[in-house]
Amino acid sequence: MIREGLTFDDVLLVPQHSTVESRSKVDLSVKLGNLTFKHPIIPANMKTITESAMAFEVCKSGGLAILHRFMPFEEQLDIALSIMKDFGSNGFGLSLGVKDHDYDNALKFINHGVRVFCIDIAHGDSELCVKMVRRLKEADNTLTIIAGNVATGMGARRLWEAGADVVKVGIGPGSLCTTRVETGNGVPQLTALMDVAQTQNELVELWRTKDVNTPKRHFPFIADGGIKNAGDVVKALCFADMVMVGNLFAGCAETPGEVLQIDGRCFKNYVGSSTHKTNYIEGVSAIVPTKGHFEEILSKLLEGLRSGCSYQGAHSLQELKDNPEFIRITNAGLKESHPHDVIIG
Fold first, then answer.
1. Residue 63, burial from CB neighbour count under 10 angstroms (0-12, 13-18, 19+)
2. Residues that are catalytic
3. Burial (Cβ within 10 Å: 0-12, 13-18, ≥19) of residue 261
4. What is the C-alpha separation between 229 and 245, in angstroms, rounded?
5. DSSP 24
6. 27 contacts 315 by C-beta, under 8 angstroms
7. Strand 41-43 relative to strand 65-67: parallel, antiparallel, unpaired?
8. If pLDDT is split at 50, 70 and 90, which confidence band does 209 have?
9. Segment 152-173, tens digit of pLDDT
10. What confidence tens digit (pLDDT) does each residue in 247-271 have?
11. In angstroms, rounded to a whole number, what is the distance separating the alpha carbons of residues 274 and 277?
């Protein structure tokens, strides 16, 4: 059997009757395990996206900042201590691999007060990832553990059942990623999110039938990759609890790296998580035009998200998940959805 796979561009949300008086009144806060954030947008934990400047601005906005893992331990620790000094430990996380030295480093970070970790590998539905989740939870079960990436409900379930508080979903949807063409593996992102959401609902229902004294779990997950605009954020959050965004923030003022001038225009490097290596097996290295500050980009995305919620009659992100209706569109429908037959000045 060959299943159908859908991306964000394959569908539109059907507008619903709305009692939302103003989009400004839409509640965009989100609860992720024991943590609460003012908005659901996470800049990607990529080498050319999230270092100290970006992490500071994200925490300042009330969001979740996750530092990438491709830097020396001492540098990660310095950034962590600086950020936590200003904002505390709940809105800031560090990324880890699955090797023994990653675990050893995690113990050191824990001793310095870090409470949020993101186990970040290309194929999260693996025994290595499951074992790392278990090891960290055994070391300190009060930690918030994010683990991924996966592309199926069963992959997410294995990580949740191993003890992950949050699962990260997305295999190959990122603008830099070549995993799907190089390995032949992946799931179109909207279908992946739908599959994981179905498993999430099944687990929530299963948990509800447990003993009354058993703490309830929500099994939250993050949609990672494939987000090209605010509309994609809205579609993703019909299923996921938060979204991770790389390309839209690439090149903004707070991203690391020098500004490159080419033919009078300014650019910054944008490199995927697997392309810090020299072989570029599952990603490409690129440049993107420089853009404004994180705060400006975030504000525009949140405005679009609020508008999208209002079209759905949703007063909050939780209400956005209440039986959204999608319609499949053709290529002509996609063209019609964008500005067309005009010269944009």
1. buried
2. 177
3. exposed
4. 10
5. G
6. yes
7. unpaired
8. confident
9. 999 999 999 999 999 999 998 8
10. 999 999 999 988 889 988 988 888 8
11. 6
